[in-house]
Write a structure and sequence with these properties.
This protein is of the alpha/beta class and about 500 residues long. Helices cover about 45% and strands about 15% of the residues. The chain contains 18 helices and 15 strands. The protein has a five-stranded mixed beta sheet with strand order 5-4-1-6-7, with helices on both faces. The longest helix is centred in the middle third of the chain and has 21 residues. The radius of gyration is 38 Å and the shape is elongated. It starts with a helix and ends with a helix.
């Protein structure tokens, strides 16, 4: 088949060659064909007749009006649904191979007669005008810490003009995580944009039936930084498209960087965090010029960060536990019946009483979890050993696997009540002296045929050399400060003040 290129070459050769036959040969076509195109002066594509006829009868011609009525009533019908309906109503008339024909016809109808499709309108972003943030799940990337899957989210922040971005590791879409991540981003940025937009996060946005758009805590956070708050409409993530696109690109960049690294396991969380910081520095490196333009118009930061924790007043139950955000935590039995102040952060909670911080406890994820520290209750549990076996949080009283193994050995050698008394005595020694040292003694005893008992553990604990008493604080003698030293400074200060400037 002759192409347009060949005919164009022929027309040029006709001007230079002696005969048509030579020009046709050099153009790669027969002389008769060359004579035809020379006579018409048109290209092969211009000779082509547009295909407007059908090569086979339309199998849906008789029923198309029925299909069109259904599409007019509900444009959401898929061609497969309509085809299945035809096969049910006209058994044996339509074969499975004809589905593709109907799909083409429905596609043409949608393009020519169907409803108008949603159009997206690109926006112009002015420097320092808008920042966007949201949470994104990083767990599917398969990052592990010491071989254990690291289930986590990223609070992701970006400037919509320069695309400068930063991120903070978190574990829930709580207000504490939002506040902590946003403040980290603003202080790293060194300034405050005009407006902050986020999705309809429950930590920041009230439900639709609420008279106010934003929660009081979120509004207070916005006021502290002078940010104007904006939100997207429900189920409309494209309205926050800048951060959604940054999510996709950031996750892909992390995935590629992990591939280059050769493994997805990290020794500790700090190493993984350093890995993310290095990656963010790399992706932001090409945005410095545009960021500098934004930096010039950002407003100044306030003098200090605002609180990124929630204050709660909680009464300690008779079980020596407190209930915080649907999870249970133990506190020292001395606080039973008292009301304590809890400061709930994104990753930990602090317990205060009498303006003194008593505990800093890692925050549990999810709901209906529990974290019971045996040191809080062991003083009374050794007095009530019968409560141990059926204690609701029984499994929390084995700080290491060796404590669990020791209890199993005691159960094999003694009755249930005797084993409980022996084990609780050992646990009391760990709380009073050193958990690390008791764990080491249990390791030595479990590795021999020597009989395991609380008295034996206590004897080995007392005879251990001082260097092995890990966890026991050394006594430090700090002499009292002599406050008269400050009085000695006053004459020299007065003499200096009398010297004329």
């Amino acid at each position: 088949m002759v192409t347009d290129i060949q005919v164009r070459r022929l027309m040029k050769l006709i001007q230079t060659e002696a005969t048509l036959a030579v020009a046709a040969a050099k153009a790669g076509m027969d002389e008769k064909t060359a004579r035809k195109y020379r006579g018409t002066g048109r290209l092969p594509s211009q000779h082509r007749v547009e295909h407007t006829w059908r090569t086979r009868p339309d199998p849906f011609a008789d029923v198309w009006h029925e299909i069109k009525e259904k599409l007019d009533d509900n444009a959401g019908f898929e061609a497969k649904t309509l085809f299945d309906d035809l096969q049910r109503r006209y058994p044996g008339r339509f074969q499975d191979g004809q589905l593709r024909t109907l799909q083409r016809r429905v596609k043409i109808w949608r393009a020519l007669e169907g409803p108008a499709k949603e159009v997206y309108f690109p926006q112009t972003h002015e420097p320092g005008e808008l920042c966007a943030s949201d949470f994104t799940d990083m767990t599917p990337l398969g990052v592990t810490i010491q071989g254990q899957l690291f289930e986590h989210l990223i609070y992701h922040f970006a400037l919509t003009h320069s695309n400068w971005e930063t991120a903070t590791i978190c574990f829930s879409e709580s207000f504490e995580s939002l506040s902590h991540g946003l403040q980290n981003a603003l202080w790293e940025l060194g300034g405050v944009p005009k407006t902050h937009i986020t999705d309809c996060l429950s930590a920041a946005v009230h439900p639709l039936d609420h008279p106010e758009d934003f929660t009081k805590r979120y509004e207070a956070l916005m006021r502290h930084y002078g940010l104007e708050a904006r939100k997207t409409n429900p189920v409309s993530p494209h309205e926050n498209g800048d951060i959604e696109q940054r999510h996709y690109r950031f996750r892909r960049a992390v995935d590629q960087a992990l591939m280059l690294r050769g493994q997805r396991d990290f020794a500790e969380r700090a190493e993984y965090n350093a890995f993310l910081r290095k990656l963010l520095d790399q992706v932001n490196a090409g945005r410095q010029e545009r960021r500098a333009g934004e930096q010039a118009v950002l407003r100044a930061l306030p003098r200090h960060r605002t609180e990124d924790y929630k204050r709660l007043s909680v009464r300690v139950s008779r079980f020596s536990t407190i209930r915080v955000s649907d999870n249970t935590y133990s506190v020292h039995s001395r606080l039973r019946g008292e009301t304590v102040e809890v400061r709930l952060y994104a990753e930990q909670l602090e317990v205060y009483y009498g303006q003194r911080r008593l505990e800093c406890i890692p925050r549990l994820r999810g709901k209906n979890g529990h974290r019971i520290q045996y040191g809080h209750i062991i003083d009374w549990l050794v007095r009530k050993p019968g409560a141990f076996v059926h204690y609701r949080y029984h499994d929390d009283l084995f700080p290491t696997t060796r404590f669990r193994m020791a209890y199993d050995v005691l159960c094999a050698e003694h009755s249930e009540s005797a084993a409980s008394r022996q084990y609780l005595h050992i646990l009391h020694l760990a709380a009073r002296e050193s958990e690390t040292q008791v764990d080491g003694i249990l390791d030595r005893l479990l590795g021999t045929d020597e009989r395991l008992s609380a008295d034996r553990v206590e004897a080995m604990l007392q005879t251990a050399p001082p260097s092995d008493r890990a966890g026991v604080a050394a006594a430090v003698d700090i002499p009292p400060v002599d406050l008269t030293l400050y009085d000695d400074l006053l004459p020299s200060y007065q003499s200096a003040a009398e010297v004329p400037v």
